[in-house]
Design brief:
- The chain is mostly helical.
- The chain folds into 2 domains: 219 residues, Substrate Binding Domain Of Dnak, Chain:A, Domain 2; 84 residues, no CATH class.
- The protein contains 9 helices and 3 strands; from the N terminus they run H-H-H-H-H-E-H-H-E-E-H-H.
- Strand 2 and strand 3 form a beta hairpin.
- Helix 3 runs antiparallel to helix 4, helix 7 packs across helix 9 and helix 8 crosses helix 9.
- The longest helix is centred in the middle third of the chain and has 64 residues.
- The chain is elongated, with a radius of gyration of 29 Å.
Length: 317
Amino acid sequence: MKLRRDVYIPAVEAVYAAMSSLGALADPGNSRSGIQEKFVEAVGAISKVNAVAGLETVAAVGTLLQRLLAVNLELSVKRNAIEVTYGQFRANADTVTRAVAEHGRWVQVQTSMLFEGPPVPEKWNFVANQIAFHQGQIDLWTVKQAACSRELQVAQLAFLRAIAESQPKLTEASVSASIALRDELGMLDGSPDLLRRTLAENGELARRALEESIARMEREIGRCSMVSDEKPVLVEADGYRRLVEADAYDAQAPIEWAVTQVEQLRSRIVDGQSVVIMGSGAPLSIWSAETFDEWVLSALPNTWAVMQADAKRFKAT
């Protein structure tokens, strides 16, 4: 009995360790090799049960091991997508950092030229073009970094969905193995069926909690059904400037033009398409109609007022 206790208790702990290590694969900051090493150790601890257990327990533990290994294989494939996207995200971030450094260097050159007396027009134009070029690089790669960040979220959501889908079978196998182990250790208090239902309910609660977390993450990035290859609608700085200028005019025609442009952009968001605003400050990535309306209200108040007035007239008719 002592031998069985020395094997069974670590095996029960190893089941939780194995499932925990599988979940850790969702974070690209965690080392895959370290996680897999812990998973292999956990599987080894569980496998020792086969050396001392009875036939029923061996069968239950074998089913659990098979399902753990199958889930590990599936999640390893999902992890590949996370690693590739994360690598691209880091590369884009490094490019932005280099572009910012180069932009700052050319700004320093331009500032030095001002202290050296009237600048030579040709040199001044060259430096100004370099500053504009690197600013464009900052804007471009910042947008790509934001898009890559969303693709990373999509890959992580796919990973979490795979865990949620596999959880019922894993729960069933772990419950059967747990009851078999408790039976051999003489730790079955009361009805085995009642214990099975209790453990199954605990597993279902865990699955529901995971589903709720997934739903919250989906809402945070704007919608529940996402396609990873969508490209954002980009409002360039020049387009942003024209929108602001049109909003500032008293004449009706420019504001109507701005209203048309804004409504077209908003319709893309409703369809699940991102809008990235390149104007003053950092690029603004918008994934929900509500956030877009807040931006229009703050950046284009006259356009917003016309849109609201049109909406009221439409309701009145």
